[in-house]
Amino acid sequence: MTMNVAALENPVARRSIRPGRIIIWTLLFLGGVVMMTPILFMLSTSLKDASQVYDLRLIPEAPSLDNYVAVLSDGRFLRWFLNSLFVAVCVTVSNVFFDSLVGYTLAKFNFRGRYIVFIAILSTLMIPTEMLVIPWYLMASNFGWVDTYWGIMFPGMMTAFGTFLMKQFFETVPDEFLEAGRVDGLNEFTIWWRVAMPLVTPAISALAIFTFLGNWTAFFWPLIVTNSRDLYTLPVGLSSFAVEQAIQWEMIMTGASIATIPTLIVFLLLQRYIVRGVMLAGLKG
Amino acid sequence: MANIVLNSLVKKYGNTTAVHGIDLQVKDGEFVVLVGPSGCGKSTTLRMIAGLEDISGGTISIDGRVVNEAEPKDRNIAMVFQNYAIYPHMTVAQNIGFGLYTSKLPESEKKKRIEETAKILGLESLLGRRPSQLSGGQRQRVAIGRAMVRNPAAFLFDEPLSNLDAQLRTQMRLEIKRLHQRLGTTIVFVTHDQVEAMTMADRIVVMRDGRILQVGTPMELYDNPADIFTARFIGSPTMNLLPARLVDKAGHHAAELNGLGASVAVSAGGISGAQGAEVLLGVRPHDLVVSSQGNGIQGLSLSGTVSVVEPLGSETLVHLDVGGASVIASAPGKVIPKAGERVAVNASAGSLYLFDSKSERALCRM
């Protein structure tokens, strides 16, 4: 009785008992369980020894960090980790620079063929990666880029998605900011760098995060273009645990757990920009 | 400081002509205001002077040098925009100093100039703040500071006060005028507000549909408008215009007000042979005064029913229905007629204007 009175008096409480809300929360909870279960099993498996891997209990019988010690003391893992970091950082920096430059040009300069260029760039989004892999490989092969860092990186150095995202954001920057810069004597590159770029920080952050995550987890192309183990990125290297000897699930899961750390750090630091970036990219079209 | 000369300046957007070959000379140190309604070409003209719009014809000279092809940065002008255009990611000091970004001055000199500018504009205590922490008036001062710090030959203002509230606008108007008196730099100021134009300008340029209608000092435009548009645009409340016809009365010209039965003797020359011509009789509300008696002197005398009264303290504006026509008159501040009351209004002959109905040009001031 007391609760009912409180619910009637307090609009928040009254709202919270709506059936629709309960359904939404239930669905969100189920979605959360579905998404979190594999991650929890990954962490759980990384704390088990080889004999317990197929024991599906979430909490290991005798949890141990031995796998972490083994993985981290294996020189190859560190190498793959650094390879992934190098590739992801280079591609991210390149995307932020070039996608912004092209996006800015398409958004803020009137020139003949601007629309056609934009459509041509956008149309590449419709081609699946699987169809591009063979031309990429032929190109890499002809230029001698196979089994090189540049070979891993070159297809992603500039993306249509990034260009589109940045163009949409730059369109929201009032022209007066840029004109003020022109009157103040700045050249166009300085206006872009000193005036326009700081005004689209959320977009830059979102693009940086998307690009970093995409390249950190990239598997297919690095697998194809690399031959030597020293050039493997982390996902490719981890997969080799499964083919070298017997499948070492506990090692794979340990490596995967460690591999999530940089992405978690990036996400936690910049998550508000991701949400804002995704929202704006969707709204401004 | 610099003089600015526009010679047959044209701006076209495709088939649309925004500015129709205008000529204008802005003298060194002069404060010129371009005024007119939206779409009259005033901002386009200013942007062409700044170099932000290409010109389609004619020439622009700044300090004797034709700058048609010169980049904005090479024109030695500074511009203040309607939306301030101060950078949100920079502090006040960085914003003001950004005007010196390309300058080769030593850092100490730049710092000195920033501080001096901030002092003039009363921004000294705000130098470390970001624009989001400033009021509208402070932001506008920062924008002016960024323009000032470069010590340009001329300032261009593009409706800089239109985003401010009425009180702040009055204050900023005064500050800009003081600044001009202090610096003596040439200023071209664009506004659609005739009060801004009247209160600040050395000379006003009235524009309409991409053409200059009249150029003159504020009082020249107020006292001797060249046409109906200028007459109505300059002065607040707007001038009353009553349809009339020129008639001959005992050998003298007179303007007979249509349907009102009143007539006014026209003594001025220049309208001979216009017998029967349709004209508009103009009278400013401040010159049409509510009176308890009829007009004893030569001039206009009307009577009408009060529809709305606007007491302003110093005076009262009285809206009248005069034989179906709406007329605004004035009364002393303490005289407040009641709505529905019938009152007489008089204007002396010297305060009346006559315009040609067809050409809309002024015929004479009576």
UniProtKB/TrEMBL annotation, chain B:
Domain of life assignment: Bacteria
Annotated source species: Microvirga terricola
Zinc among keywords: no
GO MF terms, alphabetically ordered: ATP binding
Sequence ranges assigned to domain ABC transporter in this UniProt record: 4-234
Family indicated by similarity: Belongs to the ABC transporter superfamily.
Name of the protein in its database record: Sn-glycerol-3-phosphate ABC transporter ATP-binding protein UgpC
Keyword annotations: ATP-binding, Nucleotide-binding, Transport
PROSITE patterns assigned: ABC_TRANSPORTER_1, ABC_TRANSPORTER_2
SUPFAM superfamilies: MOP-like, P-loop containing nucleoside triphosphate hydrolases
